[in-house]
Please model this.
Amino acid sequence: MASVGTEELAHLEIIGAIIYQLTKNLSMEEIEASGFDKYYVDHTLGLWPQAAGGIPFNACEFQVKGDAITDLTEDMAAEQKARSTYDNILRLVKDPDVCAPIRFLRKREIVHFQRFGEGLRIAQDHLDAKNFYAFNPGFDRCMDCSDKPACPKPCPDACPCQGVTPKDCPAE
Ligand SMILES: [Fe+2]
Model:
């Protein structure tokens, strides 16, 4: 997962290079006509991270709860949101020199979504792997009913050795 984070920093570099190339050598008339004038007043042509709607980048862009399930689900949503943003850009932009790298970035977000999905599945599969069990749930089926078929599902309270009559054990 660390490699995804490293790659995202490279994505920022790619986007920064696109913005730099699109804005360098703009005339004042071009800046005004393109609606770039407000940004120009605040930042000239320097690269200052913000959303397309003008909201400045800040630490709220990073989310963490410390719960693997929550965080991986959040990561997957973030990748989908990035992919949707690139889809929106591709509907708006016709410049092939912009579309080509955006398509590349879009593909990478899909790969990231898949990687985080695999991580989520691994986390869920091993969620209780380190639990200490008072008994082996694999043994506590109605297997002591030697003359009856073993119960197909765990029913530790229903073990005949404990003198408990299982209510829903098909072996009874
Ligand atoms: Fe990504």
